[in-house]
Predict the 3D structure of the following.
Amino acid sequence: MTQTYEVFLGCAIPNRFNNYEASMRAVAKQLDVKLIDFDGASCCGTVVLKSIDENSWLSMSGRNIALAESRGHDIVTPCNGCFGSLKDTDHVLHDDEKYRKMVNNALKPLGLEYSGKAKIRHFVEVLYDMKDEIRDKIVKPLTGLKIAFHPGCHLIRPSNVAEFDDPELPSKVDEILELTGAKSVPWGLKLACCGSPLLITSEDVATRILTEKMISAKEAGANVLVTNCPACHTQFDVQLIGLKDEKGESIELPAMFVTQILGLAMGLDPESLGTELNRISLDPISEILGI
């Protein structure tokens, strides 16, 4: 049975990470998930705006949710930041009548109203619910691939809002990744922030956080870093380029999106998954990936 969602891409993915969008759409097609482009979407509001003007943040995110509701669709997003903003807004508006009235007053001139009917889901949640279908689609097992999976903060925090993953339990995304025949290795700094939010204010601190995470991943024996967040991917596939530890040794690892890993194991054309757009070379694991 076809599942249908309005896909909220956010700002970063269409502008900087076409490989994430392409691989998400390719995997969705394989799994018979229909993704409808989100007509009229604006910025999700982001946690940055929340820290400056909470009412504006709620109104911006609330408008996007109300748009999907008006068309009778649930929302799916591949972006952790958008997921966090939309999910948090939905949580606040659902539970707080004062904020709900404020947002609906702002939306009234637009002919919109937040009612709380639309579900907000990250794309990896959709994937987890389709584990059996994914298992049946695997035709090129990625045996030998040792993944350091980084979930990113907004997928799992705050736990009373995200309602998806428990930091004390094995990650559901790890389960998805291991359906491909790869091994998702345990690593000490897996749940720590990647440092991306600090790039604007303190690149030195962001780099130090990234360095510590990569050393942790490499010490765990990983040969690829995998994430489901475009902001985190900026750290792992852009900021990491040329980065070395205190001994002067490279701490680079190929960085990929969850959807690229799944797509390759499903036998999809690497070009359709945007692998040529990954900045750090995939050559060290190309034989395992079959590309």
Q: What stands out?
A: The first strand starts at residue 3 and ends at 7. Residues 153 and 193 are 6 Å apart (CA to CA). DSSP finds 15 helices and eight strands in the chain. The longest helix spans residues 54-70.
